[in-house]
Amino acid sequence: xxxxxxxxxxxxxxxxxxxxxxxxxxxxxxxxxxxxxxxxxxxxxxxxxxxxxxxxxxxxxxxxxxxxxxxxxxxxxxxxxxxxxxxxxxxxxxxxxxxxxxxxxxxxxxxxxxxxxxxxxxxxxxxxxxxxxxxxxxxxxxxxxxxxxxxxxxxxxxxxxxxxxxxxxxxxxxxxxxxxxxxxxxxxxxxxxxxxxxxxxxxxxxxxxxxxxxxxxxxxxxxxxxxxxxxxxxxxxxxxxxxxxxxxxxxxxxxxxxxxxxxxxxxxxxxxxxxxxxxxxxxxxxxxxxxxxxxx
Length: 296
What we know:
- The protein is an alpha+beta fold.
- It has helices at residues 13-20, 22-28, 49-60, 68-78, 88-98, 151-160, 162-182, 218-222, 254-264, and strands at 2-9, 37-40, 102-113, 121-132, 138-148, 190-191, 203-204, 207-208, 227-235, 241-248, 267-268, 270-272, 275-277, 279-289.
- Helix 3 (49-60) crosses helix 7 (162-182) and helix 4 packs across helix 5 (88-98).
């Protein structure tokens, strides 16, 4: 079972700054720190030590890594309430404080699994989030999981998979860096005015003719993910979607599910004083796993 809710909101000032000022962030992240990577484990536990150590060792051969203790101290100074479900603004703030181009967030665990097709087994898993300090975007996400009859065996297999994952991450970041440097800032566009402003009286925001719920993915269900995904959506004067930006990411396939659902919807354009016009809106989706109640 799954549950998700959907709302259309005016865009807070924080998101307006994030969406239109990427070039300013290029100046904040200095050339000296542009190649640096920070690896962080906000939910650190004993099970994560081998995998994280091996991942850092392999990644450090390809990219310069920052000091763990200093990076984590800077991260804690920002104190994000949901480190694995972060807004773009928070991501940029963390990257600026640490002084890196990208930072990696790792969440690990070992779970006992049951299946009708085989005996019980253990799964060691690591959710790996890579965030760009320039944009605050989640630029890489991977759920790495290995299984074995015993917990220690599954954890050893997970650690052994780290070098290959590090290679994949390094190659992806090269591509992301090129794409970010070539990207143009988002164009200025009308936004939903605050309800107490005079402009709101004759303003009608874009609305879908039929709302479509994004999928609560199998991966999110398996790991009991509760998350919020925010999407900034530009709708033109004819109701066509110009651009979708995930302004608060979650991983686990939920961001992609939101984008897919938005693209399936037909939109009524926004209006101002009776005339249609392009409008930027913030869409918010809340996801939560709901277990099926047992039959009585």
